[in-house]
Specification:
It is a single chain. This protein is of the alpha/beta class and 339 residues long. The chain is built from 7 helices and 14 strands. Helix content is 29%, strand content 22%. A hairpin with a 7-residue loop joins strand 13 and strand 14. The longest helix is centred in the first third of the chain and has 32 residues. It starts with a helix and ends with a strand.
């Protein structure tokens, strides 16, 4: 009975779930199982001493940087001292300045353009700046400057070779010939081209005036180097290059004017004193009897050959004392307009 009552009295109490120790080892002390977490010693927090900074880890890099900066400063001062010494030393003073390649320019003009003079220290002269100053001159195509120790400067210049004078803004066709002559006397829209066909300067009264005068072209007809040229400008350049050849029947020195007609082509007006100019042996003399030669376009070497045969014929027969114009626009015929 006693036992039954005790059972009924404790029936409503739930038994606690058994404790599982997964992955933990149990240690037994006598008859009681003790979990390892109860066997760990308790660690009490201990305040650590403040860390002491080592000043040498900051001082060493600072000293190293200071030493390097001091060394750089000393080396720079040494270089400055030697530079000043050599650039001011009279041993390197320029006693001779040799200039080669000038035709149009004088030695005085070259020295003024280069901004150098005798007595300057050759080490103090910036050769690169000298070259740039020389090339800035309109007549200079290429320039070189070099030192020759201990006291010489060598300057070599290649000047532009003038070929003709271009009139890019000619007077209108309705103007009279007198106005045209007055226009040629003025420096209006006249430019000088070199043998490559490049414009290199504006014509001035001090420039050569015996060059062939080209009219009838506009600014749009001028082509840049390396680019294809139009027919009128190409025709002018062909005529001028033929006139540069030795023994040419119409040398450039005989040509007073080259007129460009976009439809009819090229015509040449010759100097009136052309009979004073001697041709090479075996070549006919192009005299004052011919005032104008009409060439048209294309086939200029063959047309020059036909003109040479025609001039031989005139010299042998003497039929025309004065010829106003010779038209060799076509290869198979020559049209003569006598005075």
């Amino acid at each position: 009975m006693e036992n039954n009552r005790r059972l009924r009295k404790n029936y409503h109490r739930k038994k606690p779930p058994p404790r599982r120790y997964s992955g933990e080892s149990l240690s037994f002390s006598g008859k009681t199982a003790v979990s390892p977490e109860y066997q760990r010693p308790w660690s009490l927090p201990v305040q650590s001493e403040p860390e002491k900074h080592n000043m040498t880890q900051y001082v060493s890099p600072l000293l190293r940087i200071t030493a390097q900066a001091t060394l750089v400063t000393i080396v720079s001062l040494v270089f400055i001292f030697f530079y000043d010494f050599f650039t001011q030393c009279h041993y390197f003073s320029a006693k001779n300045i040799i200039i080669k390649g000038i035709r149009k320019l004088s030695e005085k003009e070259v020295l003024e353009q280069a901004e150098i003079r005798t007595g300057m220290n050759i080490l103090s002269i910036n050769l690169s700046k000298v070259r740039k100053r020389l090339i800035a001159h309109p007549w200079v195509e290429h320039a070189e400057a070099k030192r020759n120790f201990p006291s010489e400067i060598h300057i070599e210049i290649a000047e532009h070779k003038p070929l003709a004078i271009l009139d890019l803004f000619p007077p209108s066709p309705v103007q009279a010939d007198s106005n045209r002559e007055a226009h040629e006397d003025k420096n209006e829209g006249r430019f000088i081209i070199n043998v490559q066909g490049d414009i290199f300067k504006l014509w001035e009264p001090s420039d050569p005036d015996e060059l062939p005068f080209v009219s009838g072209l506009g600014a749009a007809d001028i082509c840049m180097r390396g680019m294809p040229c139009g027919t009128p400008f190409s025709a002018v350049m062909d005529i001028l290059r033929l006139g540069q050849r030795p023994g040419s029947i119409i040398p450039n020195k005989l040509i007073r004017r080259i007129e460009v007609d976009r439809e009819m082509g090229i015509s040449l007006q010759l100097f009136r004193d052309s009979e004073l100019i001697r041709q090479p042996p075996g070549k006919p003399v192009l005299t004052e009897r011919i005032r104008e030669i009409k060439l048209g376009y294309n086939d200029y070497p063959d047309k020059y050959e036909n003109l040479e045969h025609f001039l031989f014929y005139l010299e042998e027969n003497g039929k025309f004392e004065t010829i106003n114009s010779v038209d060799i626009n076509h290869l198979n015929r020559i049209v003569v307009n006598p005075m």
